[in-house]
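Known limitations

Files may contain more than one protein. Parsers should not assume a single record per file. Below, a two-record file is shown to illustrate correct handling: read the sequence, read the token line, then continue until end of file.
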Amino acid sequence: MRADALRRTVAAAAVAVLLAAGGCTTGGAAKDTDGTSGADRAGARSGTMRGITLPSWYRTDYDSPAADRYLRGIRATGARWVTFTPTWYQNRVTDTSPHTTEETASDTSLRHIVGRAHGLGLKVMIKPHIDLPGDEDRADIRPRDRAAWFTSYRRFITHYADLAADTRTEQFTVGTELAGVSGDTAAWAGVVRAVRDHYDGPLTYAANYDEYRKIHFWKDLDLIGIDAYWPLSARPTDDPARLRRAWRPIRDELAAYARGQNRRILFTEAGYVSQRGATTAPYSWTVSRRPAPAEQAAAYRALLDSFTGRRWWAGVCWWMWDDWPDSGETPVKLAYTPRGKPAERVLREKWGAS
């Protein structure tokens, strides 16, 4: 057996162990057409990721005195996973080399918070990001020299793969929403091979909801990752039933795709601001200036009602728990965080928090 095939086998075994412990795994082929038996659903329900992202915006965020409080708050929702997002930046979409800045979480702080999370009984996914200045979209990255960019990217991503291995991080993401380069299948296969040389755990890629069908290297990964920001309504609504109806055709499409790829689907991100109209554009931080916590809560409920228990669905990591003190540009009452809002009560109910 080739070394990379052996690593895939080891990763698949690790995935199975995580599922048995309430983690997130591929679980082999998705054999149902979308429904499953009651027994299958009961088993799947306990084997999906219940996660929340805690992003960083500055090098010392993960060292913040607020870190323990945030992690305890995440665990109190019934979450069993937390995702961390160290971020490098490039100045222009055509640049060939991302780099650290003062907004990049330090390695020391990342190691520290992974240890804190493990100490609280939370599993960890590390999901490194590449970003651009201001409001520019990372999906627009199209380097002028792609070979040079991928060389730099492998250096970036294997750095974090080493850190994930050293900290016994349970799962790793090899890229996030890089639609401008994610069509370079051979280059990404090389990225995945490089990561597997450094890290033995389960791997995914976080494709945007309008990108995942354009990815042709899922076979090299253990999970299909989707950032699930599908618009669900043409106008604001806080009716969960209406939102569940909107999810049905998307769910059917995803079930078929999971079967075709022989992989389970993880929502590597999903989230809604607590603003009126959040369900019309879940990817937007600035839908309106009118608070709408009921609309946010309805969206949380509809997603969990629609997907929980589907054998092919590997769970969700919500975006996001909170901004760090004094760092948030969006007022808490309008932000993605569910903390202290009706959406948090939905999580506690659905995830069985004590």
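...continuing to the second record:
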Amino acid sequence: MLLVAVPGDLGNQLEAKLDKPSVVHYICYKKTENFFTLWLNLELLVPYAIDCWIDNMRQWWSGATRETTTSEELHTTGGKLRQMIEEMAEKAGGPVVLIAHSMGNMYTLYFLNQQKQAWKDKYIKAFISLGAPWAGVAKTLRVVTSGDNNRIPLISPLKIRSQQRTAVSTTWLLPYDHSWPKDQVFIKTPTTNYTVKDYEKLYSDIGFRDGWLMRKDTEPLVSDLTAPGVAVHCLYGNGIPTPEAFQYSDMFPDVEPDVVYGDGDGTVNLRSAVQCKRWTGQQKQPVALKELPGNEHVNMLTNITTVDYIKTVLFSP
């Protein structure tokens, strides 16, 4: 039995080789002879060097030049993933187990929704979902509004915000109204409350109108949470204070907010993580939920309970 892992944001690694016409600071490299680790390299996040990192990590997106949509890009990536799964299944002599973490679950769900049922029956034994943000996560609203340094003290949230706003995937993970109350306030300022129905106004008020176009690009991809059509094992952490709402002063949006916490794994809100339960009865394949009390979003990857559960799925008949 073989498995295919689809990592989330913090689980990814990105290498770069530079050849740039200009730089934002004299200490930044225009050209490098070899590839080097760009994400996640903490050595690049120190003062001054972070300006180079932000410029290298920025994604260029324009609503006026959207010749290739997000869905088309995912379709291209999905073709490569499909080919890899088929090759691995042929070598192993049987179907594979897909394991995804964090945002990787959204990509995996989109991929499975594009495949014919006969193909899934032949090549996919199960889909193990770890810490999935099925209904989005509240903390992404802080990311696009005032930035989030992921608790790395060297980084100023406002400094890194310019890079974080360029990531289209961030807007994909804003909370969805299919699971969150339409009157729940996520961002509160002295003059305005923002709910799941106020994203267009929020993006306008923070001076980031392209963000609304990015949201419209990504929202339809898996917003209906169509059942994947394969056996699902949904593992999620809880019991850890998780950002649920943000209160800003009159310096909004250029100030760090006071955070209101709820339940979850420290990143993914519990409300979002358990939405996979809706697939019970929507597909003939089984759907199992496994609660991981006290498991943090990233640390759950090395938790012995998680590892043992994966082994059980891998080696089951």
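Parsers that stop after the first record will miss the second one. For reference, the second record is described as follows. The CA atoms of residues 2 and 81 lie 14 Å apart.
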